[in-house]
Amino acid sequence: MATGGFELLVGCFQPDFLPTITYLETIGFQMVTIFPADAPRVALLRHPGSGVELRLDTAHSGLARPRFTLLSETPEQDLAAASENGGRRIAGLPSVLAPNGLRIDFAHVDPPLVLPPNKPSLCVSQFSGGTSWVVGRAGMRYRDLIPDRWGGKYIASHIHIPTAGEVPDYAHFHNIHFQLIFCWKGWVKVVYEGQGEPFLLRPLDCVLQAPKIRHRVLESSADLQVVEIGCPAEHLTYRDHDMDLPTPSLQPGRKFHTSTFGRFQMCDNPALWSPMPHRHHWEAVDYGMQVSSAGIVSVHVTRPAAEGVVVRAAGQDDFFFIFVLSGSVGFASGSETAMVLVEGDSVAVPIHVSFELRDGSSDLRMLEVRSGGDKLLPSSL
């Protein structure tokens, strides 16, 4: 019984009709129907690997020539074969023209992730009541913390869900180098592939979303606020229509490409704080993400351990980001005007750019995120 389908109408002049069918068959299409038998002018061809169906019809010879992309795991070989079998190569492109002018592009079904070159700039984002939000995926509000995205390599977003209730999300995944979610205020219920039943992210909790792990946001409190940091800045988000979450099997140590799933619960445990080796009179909580990410990214929450401490340092990594969770701290860098960073403010510091932190309040807490990009981070702060 027929179950329906999708056809792409392709116009064709009569002299090109049979040569085009022959050519399409050489690159993997299969004849489904042809009409009429004595003087064919309509044919339906299907590509079994992709499910693409083409209706070749001489009655629409004036139709603008369509273009489609054939996805496979071996696009280079497919392009070479298509060229050898009579397709006309388009100079400089992975493409051919069929006899009727149909353009066929060849691409990898799962292309490797290519990180853009880093173009860092000192970027300070100050939070205020007049902050403008942009409504993004699943109705969530986004505030861009690095507007120039450092050339497209990094993104940091302050995400807000004002009202409590279910979130209109769906099972999805991202083609990323890394992505982390840090819960600042409120709580959010999430579920991840292979990580058991749904769980709550509470204030100061964090997850590292490994590349292509399926996940879904289920529910949130009122005034949920999280910080999301990812690389690269622009990446594809795929909806998974087939996977139901939670998945039946628990796979806590499973490797998704380069990383495992990472989860840290703060629980306000004083035993978690330890002195920072390279920042005197400061303490930090290490979230363990350097292990989960195989050395790609680190996450710490930091605080001064004494009054009047002045920190003079410089960006040491491909990416260094600070978000003020509570309290206040003075910040200065080079010729930039000194300013006071307060709750909700953030700064991204390029490598080798010097900066100063001073006059941190007693309740100062900062989220600090580092990444070496495509290089491993050193073992400690």
What would you say this structure looks like, in words?
The protein is mainly beta. The protein has 3 helices and 34 strands. The strands form 8 sheets. A 7-stranded antiparallel beta sheet has the order 9-32-29-34-27-26-25. Strands 10-11-12-20-15-18-24 form a 7-stranded antiparallel beta sheet. Strand 3 (42-46) and strand 4 form a beta hairpin. The relative contact order is 0.12. The model has no long low-confidence stretch (mean pLDDT 89).
Keywords:
single chain; 381 residues; mainly beta; 7-stranded antiparallel β-sheet; 40% strand; elongated
Write a brief structural summary.
The protein is mainly β. It has three helices and 34 strands. It has helices at 14-26, 75-84, 289-292; strands spanning 8-11, 30-35, 42-46, 53-57, 67-72, 88-89, 95-97, 103-108, 123-125, 134-135, 141-144, 155-161, 165-166, 172-174, 178-185, 188-192, 199-201, 206-209, 215-220, 224-231, 237-239, 255-256, 259-260, 262-264, 274-275, 282-286, 297-304, 311-314, 319-326, 328-332, 339-342, 346-348, 354-358, 365-371.
Describe the secondary structure blueprint for this structure.
Layout: E1 8-11, H1 14-26, E2 30-35, E3 42-46, E4 53-57, E5 67-72, H2 75-84, E6 88-89, E7 95-97, E8 103-108, E9 123-125, E10 134-135, E11 141-144, E12 155-161, E13 165-166, E14 172-174, E15 178-185, E16 188-192, E17 199-201, E18 206-209, E19 215-220, E20 224-231, E21 237-239, E22 255-256, E23 259-260, E24 262-264, E25 274-275, E26 282-286, H3 289-292, E27 297-304, E28 311-314, E29 319-326, E30 328-332, E31 339-342, E32 346-348, E33 354-358, E34 365-371
Parallel strand pairs: 1-4, 5-8
Antiparallel strand pairs: 2-3, 3-4, 6-7, 7-8, 9-32, 10-11, 11-12, 12-20, 13-19, 14-21, 15-18, 15-20, 16-17, 16-19, 18-24, 22-23, 25-26, 26-27, 27-34, 28-33, 29-32, 29-34, 30-31, 30-33
